Amino acid sequence: MLESCNAGVVCQGRFIFLLSLFVVLGVLTRPGLAAAISADNPVVSSSTASIVRHELSVTLDPVTHRIMAADRLTLHLPSPMPTGLEFTLAPGLRVTRLRAEQEGRTLPVRFTSNNRLSRDMAGESTQVVAVILPDTLSSGLLHLEWRYEGIIHDSPREPRHLRFVTPSDTSGYIGPEGVYLSSESQWYPDLGGSLPTFRVNVTLPVGWSAVTHGQMRLPVEAKSDATHTTIWDVPDPTEALTLVANQFIRSTREWADETGRTVLLETDLLPANAKLADEYLDASARYLEVYSRILGPYPFTKFAVVENFFPSGLGMPSFTLLGSGVIRRHYTQPYALGHEIVHSWIGNSVFNRSGTGNWVEGLTTYLANYYYDELQGQMEQAREQRRLMLAGYAVYVPPDRDYPVAQFKQKFDQTDNAIGYQKSAMVFHMLRCHVGEAVFWRTVKRLGEEFRGRQVDWDMLEELFSQESGQSLGLFFDQWIDGAGAPVLTASVRALPLRPDSSGHAESGAIEVHIRQTAPTYRLTLPLVVLGKNGARYETSVALSEGAQSFRIPVLFDAIAVQVDPDFHVFRRLDRADLPPMLNLLVTDNARTIVVSKGRDSEEESIYRRIVERLTQQAGGGDAGTAVIVVESLDRADSAVAGSVLFLGPDQLKHWRERADPSCASQVREENGRISVDGEAFEGAGLALLVSCHRAKGSGHVVTLFFGATPEAAGTVARLLFFYGWQSYLVFRDGAVVARGDIGPEMGRIQVTRD
User: Fold this and answer.
1) Residue 357: burial class (beta carbons within 10 Å; 0-12, 13-18, 19+)
2) Largest CA distance in the chain
3) φ, ψ at 170 (rounded to 5°)
């Protein structure tokens, strides 16, 4: 039994917070048919017809942002026959030719188009091309030959949030910096619900190369001295095709799985990062080795790490697209590259059913971000990440913004992240603990092998795990997937009088643990650890099913405290006041004040002012709901300053200390350039400090201090400051973390009271 799943205990997985983002690429569903099709000429829903194959030829001109394309679509038409179909296409593209062919006959077709607001991309529009089919068609296969061209020029925008860029920050771009064409780009005609295969010819300027799903066919065709064409085969059905291009330097090697089957490993990096190719190829082979044993044979013939010209962390069938900054920071960790490789199976081979809740991110997060550390035997790290998962939910999911896991579809902000990635990952770990090791891993492998090319939803997962386990899992899924929220638990402990044991001779002790649940009531098993003097401890668990329950626990020593779920196995809502102080409590506070005094020189002042600008620009963008107040000093009384406070600059240490909880503030000292935190001393010109304490007055609010010993030390850290939000303190030397930790009482520890 794995260490983090105590027998009979409902346990959780864990999560490392991602810079990257993967969104399952889905086909957009569109409202009703074009006006050209009247009520007297009804059209069977497009979902009853599907695209079987695309044969695309595209020419891309980065200088003019232009695409010129031809697409020979193979459709399967149902019986009874539809009289028309609706295709989606980017609004900036113009159809110049459309004709139909069936069984060698060329048939006339009519089409009209208009732009409509997309349901899935608020504020964006899509072109709906309504194709009216001739009466002489029969059910079966139909070929539609399209020619179209136009401009795709939606420059990637700055992230709307402090920590990540979503794919919707651009709907597609063709330009000198690079090419990014995804499902959001609508760069080829599509029908909702289709899972086609592709053959793609891509013509680009000489010096440019393309990457898409599948594998490139050799040799490369030369078109002229100025352009060249590559041909790609995509034999696996896919929800949507992503095409990227740039002036890449390509490196390759072969990897063989345990059966001897070979997979092409590839990196497509820009010149500045090309030297990192071997590092990424090595890591790719390492993760493929691990996850092919868990999920079955790797489902594609290639895996490529491709560099993007704007920040991203996206997984597509047979490649991942990582921004230059990510590549440069050696993102070969399990929660980065490992996460995208797991998506090769979960999300890019076994699909999430369109229009239903997204289970893919939860399972991928569990397998990559959590389970890899278990495999490495890093159980302390696993425990820490379970704690971070609970903290993330407490920080980013206030009760009024909570919703069921079943309703999560894709990540737009940190609330979505906490529910769709973290809570969902914990659900899979609880499921693993509930059904047992053998059943869980047998079911996961069956999912990866038997459901390749199929769409799966939460209901199908419930049925699959129920079949393998031989038990009904309806209550489990109802509670953790279909219901919003999380258990809210409070506990108290008192010592019971000593009494003779059953033999009537020795005396035995006991404690009474009283636990209350705020409605709604959950059924769960809660681990408890009873602590005594000289290291004595007793581990047990209690089954909860009611709003208030008391449990008598016999112990053979004098109990002094009880730890409630000390390893953070049970998913529950923690009160913000019970969390260790951290920057993220400030970022998500409804009231925030920034105190930044005039710097000692213009460079230093500029560094701190940029932090102010970043936080104020992001206010209300999914991280907190109110504006930020910025002042140069705090001369007013504490009562006049609500919420959390951020102090910027070394001269603010005194003012920070005055408003911090004394027991926390006493752990931080600075004297003559020497910093002491939690009993450890640091010195040097390259030092910077980020430290948070709970406010001396103000439940759930914090005061945070950031400064550098020199402007250079502060500037190196400042640009990434908001990625360091989960510890009470971090000490940096020349931009690297040299110490980190939490300050405050132990979470979940309850002292035993005596009558």
Assistant:
1) buried
2) 100
3) -150, 140
DSSP classification of residue 521: P
Predicted confidence (pLDDT) at residue 10 exceeds the cutoff of 50:
no
Which range has the worst mean pLDDT, 393-402, 536-545, 739-748?
Answer: 739-748
The secondary element (H helix, E strand) that includes residue 418 is none
Higher pLDDT, 443 or 557: 443
Inter-residue contact 116 to 125 (CB < 8 Å): yes
The pair of structure tokens assigned to 730 is 């971090």
SS3 683: strand
Q: Which pLDDT belongs to residue 158? A: 66
Which of 719, 163, 169 minimizes the C-alpha distance to 396? 163
pLDDT band at 508 (very low <50, low <70, confident <90, very high): low
Q: How many helices (H) and strands (E) does the chain have?
A: 16, 40
Q: Quote the pLDDT of residue 183.
A: 86
The 3-state DSSP class for residue 343 equals: coil
Q: What is the dihedral of CA 514, 519, 522, 527, to 10 degrees?
A: -30
Residue 122 has pLDDT above 90, yes or no: no
Give how far Cα 648 sits from Cα of 181, 194, 284, 608, 698, Å.
41, 53, 41, 6, 20
The one-letter amino acid at 170: T
Q: Which two tokens stand for residue 570?
A: 């049970």
**Two structure tokens written together for 417:** 């992240």
pLDDT bin (cut points 50, 70, 90) of residue 35 is: very low
The model carries a pTM of 0.83
Cβ-in-10-Å burial (0-12, 13-18, 19+) of 314 comes to buried
Radius of gyration for the chain, computed over Cα atoms and rounded to the nearest angstrom:
29
DSSP letters, 576-642, are GGGSPP-HHHHHT-SSEEEEEPPPSSHHHHHHHHHHHHHHHHHTTTTS-SS-EEEES---S-GGGS-
Q: Which 3 state secondary structure label does DSSP give 263?
A: strand
Give the model confidence (pLDDT) of 601-626 as tens digits.
678 888 998 898 888 876 544 444 45
Distances in Å between the alpha carbon of 320 and those of 156, 186, 207, 326, 618? 18, 20, 22, 12, 28
What is the CB neighbour count within 10 angstroms for residue 35? 9
Helix (H, G, I), strand (E, B), or coil: what is residue 698? coil
Give the span between the Cα atoms of 286 and 589, in whole angstroms: 41
573 is written with which tokens? 């809502």
Answer left, alpha or beta for residue 107, where phi above 0 means left and psi between -120 and 50 means alpha: beta
Q: What's the chain's average pLDDT?
A: 86
Span 589-603, pLDDT tens digits: 988 899 987 766 678
- Cα angle vertex 338, ends 337, 340, to 5°? 65
User: In terms of DSSP bridges, do strands 262-269 and 302-308 run parallel, antiparallel, or are they unpaired?
Assistant: parallel
Going along 182-280, which residue ranges are E strands? 197-205, 209-211, 215-222, 227-234, 243-246, 249-256, 262-269
